[in-house]
Design brief:
274 residues; alpha+beta; Arc Repressor Mutant, subunit A; 3 domains; six-stranded antiparallel β-sheet; 11 helices; 40% helix
Length: 274
């Protein structure tokens, strides 16, 4: 088994939307040293087991990049970033729900958005080193993932996501109910400025960015079927027309829709060969 992706343990499901464990895989070819990582709109925690520190680049034009520690928190992003995949490593990780960072790490999502933060800066080096040591000692992928989940449960100590009641009510409604920020503001009962501040605090994104990513996610879900035409995908995912979808897609993903179809990983559609 090379990878696991599943729902978290019951005690975590209010804080975590999914967890994963990945065994190291060989790079498919010499030209695939970098990949585009498309945004999920969520904050994630990830720990790598071995290999050199991973290099992350702000965009395709960034040639210098910066190193990311073995244990890090990736803040919510509204557009793609690039990473070096020339030295693949095993890893475990978790996608966090809005408001979970405050409960698990003591800081809001807004403080982590748009960049990687060393996990040690949030919970201390001793705790991270102890967790990595336990993960190294365990050889089974499912065992490593279970250890990681147990660590998250210990961090949570029974706490729930820290969400403003208005945000909790809006995010708890039927997915796709809101197409415009104004509709969200009206449903929240808050002022426009207050709503944006509350939303960004708990998600790391502006409401407009979050809605755009919801449409983008629906589009790539439909586009996984190669028989779907892009005009139909645009109509089915809330874009005004195919040109609108193409413009937003390029901004978010760094590639055109056609390039995404040719270069994405079918098993992980948010990972695209650079």
């Amino acid at each position: 088994m090379h990878s696991i992706r599943r729902n978290p343990k019951t005690f975590l499901d209010r804080l975590v939307s999914s967890v994963w464990a990945q065994a190291p895989l060989p790079v498919a070819g010499p030209g695939e040293r970098r990949e585009l990582v498309l945004p999920t709109g969520s904050t994630h925690v990830a720990l790598r087991f071995h290999g050199p520190p991973i290099l992350v680049f702000d965009d395709a034009a960034d040639r210098r990049g910066h190193g990311v520690e073995f244990a890090s928190v990736g803040g919510a992003r509204a557009r793609y970033h690039v990473r070096d995949v020339s030295a693949p490593s095993g890893s475990v990780g978790a996608m966090l729900r809005p408001g979970a960072c405050q409960a698990l790490l003591g800081v809001p999502e807004s403080a982590l958005a748009g960049h990687h933060t060393p996990l040690s800066a949030l919970v201390g080096s001793a705790e991270v080193d102890a967790l990595l040591e336990r993960l190294h000692r365990c050889r089974r992928l499912e065992g490593r993932l279970s250890l990681f989940e147990d660590w998250l449960i210990g961090r949570a100590q029974g706490r729930l996501p820290v969400l403003h009641p208005a945000l909790q009510a809006v995010l708890g409604t039927t997915p796709g109910r809101f197409d415009r920020v104004g509709d969200m503001v009206e449903a929240s009962g808050l002022s426009h400025r207050h709503w944006i501040a509350v939303f960004r605090h708990a998600t790391g994104l502006a409401p407009s960015e979050w809605l755009q990513l919801q449409r983008f996610e629906k589009a790539i879900g439909l586009a996984a079927d190669p028989s779907f035409a892009w005009a139909d995908i645009a109509a089915g995912s809330g874009f005004s027309d195919q040109a609108h979808l193409a413009n937003v897609f390029r901004t978010i993903a760094g590639v055109t829709p056609s390039q995404w179809r040719l270069r994405h990983d079918p098993g992980a559609p948010r990972h695209v060969r650079a």
